[in-house]
Design brief:
InterPro entries: AAA+_ATPase, ABC_transporter-like_ATP-bd, ABC_transporter-like_CS, FeS-cluster_ATPase_SufC, P-loop_NTPase. Belongs to the ABC transporter superfamily. Ycf16 family. Keywords: ATP-binding, Nucleotide-binding. Helix content is 40%, strand content 28%. By secondary structure, it is α/β, with parallel strands linked by helices. The chain has a domain of 174 residues: P-loop containing nucleotide triphosphate hydrolases (Rossmann fold), CATH 3.40.50.300. The protein has a 6-stranded mixed beta sheet with strand order 6-9-10-3-11-12, sandwiched between helices. A hairpin with a 2-residue loop joins strand 11 and strand 12.
Length: 249
């Protein structure tokens, strides 16, 4: 699914990623953990094509295609999805219209017929109900006046509708209470299967209790310094990053 080799990237000529090697096979969920400033969000931005991040070395392929050579919209059409750490507000843009436009763009790229308003609303309401979202959230402007938890649920609703092949979740658990956290995790788990993979960026092991990743990777100073199973996240929760930082010094 995703193959990263020697990936290095910088912003404003400041190196952030310093040689990332990572493979996420089909059907697997991998977690990225690490202290603030280690490059976790940068990795997500680079993979999704954010233009102010410059790739200085290495490669990233997505289903055998050179991901770094694709425009952001082409990456989305190919099945890449990024859930933001801080979803932006879009005043004047109706949430339902935004979601339907995005979904139909993806459907066109797949050679599928577009959904009309009635078909879309039936689908969107069913997915929103599963995420415990009230119907009026579809009528409001995108993320305007939404609480932090509502914004994150709206991101997961987008993911549920777009059905990506690879989802990158950038601290989707940030600011969520226990109930909202489980709902968001359930939304991700509902997509799990042989044609769906996810890269989950998180600070907290509690999200991983619900997701149970196949692998956990620790990112420190722009490099992956340790990988392991779900038990690695539990170890980090107990001991923190002090030992790893000392080893890297």
């Amino acid at each position: 699914m995703l193959e990263i080799r020697g990936l290095a990237a910088a912003i404003n000529e400041k190196p952030i990623l310093k040689g990332i090697d990572l493979t996420v096979p089909d059907g697997e969920v991998h977690a990225i953990m690490g202290p603030n400033g280690s490059g976790k969000s940068t990795l997500g931005y680079v993979l999704s094509g954010r233009e102010d991040y410059a790739v200085t070395a290495g490669s990233a392929t997505f289903n055998g295609i050179d991901l770094l050579d694709m425009e952001p919209e082409a990456r989305a059409a190919a099945g890449l999805f990024l859930a933001f750490q801080a979803p932006i507000e879009l005043p004047g843009v109706n949430n339902a219209n935004f979601l339907r436009t995005a979904l139909n763009a993806i459907r066109r790229s797949r050679g599928e017929s577009e959904l009309d308003a009635v078909q879309f609303l039936k689908l969107a309401r069913a997915e929103a109900k599963r995420l415990a979202m009230p119907d009026d959230m579809l009528k409001r402007n995108v993320n305007v006046g939404f609480s932090g938890g509502e914004k994150k649920r709206n991101e997961v609703l987008q993911m549920a509708l777009l059905r990506p092949k690879l989802a990158i979740l950038d601290e989707t658990d940030s600011g969520l209470d226990i109930d909202a956290l489980k709902i968001v995790a359930d939304g991700v788990n509902a997509l799990r299967g042989p044609e769906f993979s996810a890269l989950v960026i998180t600070h907290h092991q509690r999200l991983l209790d619900h997701l149970v990743p196949n692998r956990v990777h620790v990112l420190l100073n722009g490099q992956i310094v340790r990988s392991g199973g779900p038990e690695l996240a539990k170890e980090l929760e107990k001991r923190g990053y002090g030992d790893l930082i000392a080893e890297a010094a």
